[in-house]
Amino acid sequence: MDAASELQERGFALLPGPVPSDRMERLANAYTAAMESATGDDIRVGSTSTKVSDLVNRGAEFDDLYVFPPLLEACCRVIGQPFKLSSLLARTLRPHSPAQELHVDVRRDSADWPLLGFILMVDEFRPDNGATRFVPGSHRWPGTPADSISDLRAEYDGQVLACGNAGSLLVFNGSAWHGHTANTSSGPRRSLQGAFIPRDGRAGTDFAARMQPETRVRLGPLARHVLAL
Ligand SMILES: O=C(O)CCC(=O)C(=O)O
Q1: Contact partners, residue 214, CB within 8 Å, separation at least 6
Q2: 56: helix, strand or coil
Q3: I want to staple 115 with a disulfide (CB 3.0 to 4.6 A). Which of 35, 69, 152, 174 is the partner?
Q4: Ligand 1 midpoint to CA 117 (Å)
Q5: What is the pLDDT of residues 106-124, one digit of tens each?
């Protein structure tokens, strides 16, 4: 099955990402710098993950991701109407963290639906370091996991792990049931994550309000459009 059919039938697909393997170290260094420089509300330390928001303004190394043509093509397929970037964050799933609850990213009655989620693997995603799990075909189901499952962290029949090399790009329909699995390894699982939503939805990050002058000067027309500037 090609990636477009996988996204349509299974609700998610793994693509080669925009960063060639010989530039992954540079990206990982920029990721570390972004994590270290964030302050205040921009850094959130949750029960399993540390997240830093607004990667758009945290380095030119992240510019290619949210205008990557195969990613925008996935948006056209899933959102099917004019769209914009809603969020772009760094997420480190810390070592020895439990699985996340199975969930959907957006309810069907929301202005932010349909949503296209994406995850760029900064480290490889493996069964032991918390690879994202998906329930294939669940993006077509009317209910959410919380409607029918009592233990949302338990394994779900038919779930599959989206494992991939560093640099791989996971794209998924925000209605697909998914969540990270447990990171039982001794290392972090780093990723860049974001979402696109319909253009009239409410973005998680107000990119226009946060835009830094040094970011603005390097953005092309496509980036400005995607960021709704
Ligand atoms: O980090 C992952 O593997 C999945 C993250 C996710 O689904 C979320 O935070 O909504």
Answers
A1: none
A2: helix
A3: 174
A4: 9
A5: 999 999 999 999 999 999 9
pLDDT at residue 1, rounded to an integer: 86
Q: How far apart are CA 78 and CA 98, in angstroms?
A: 30
Buried b or exposed e, range 56-93, using 16+ CB within 10 angstroms:
bbbbebbbebbbbeebbebbebbbeeebbbbbbbbbbb
Instruction: Please give the average per-residue pLDDT across 19-29, as a whole number.
Output: 97
Give the CA diameter of the chain.
50
C-alpha to C-alpha distance for 201 and 222, rounded to whole angstroms: 19
- Strand 189-198 and strand 83-93: the pairing is antiparallel
Q: Which atom of ligand 1 is nearest to the CA of 91?
A: 1
Quote the CA–CA distance of 110 and 120 in Å, as a whole number: 25
**How many residues belong to the chain?**
229
> What is d(CA 174, CA 9) in angstroms, rounded to the nearest whole number?
14
The tens digit of pLDDT for each residue in 86-101 reads 999 999 999 999 999 9
Residues contacting ligand 1 via CB (< 6 Å): 91, 93, 105, 132, 178-180
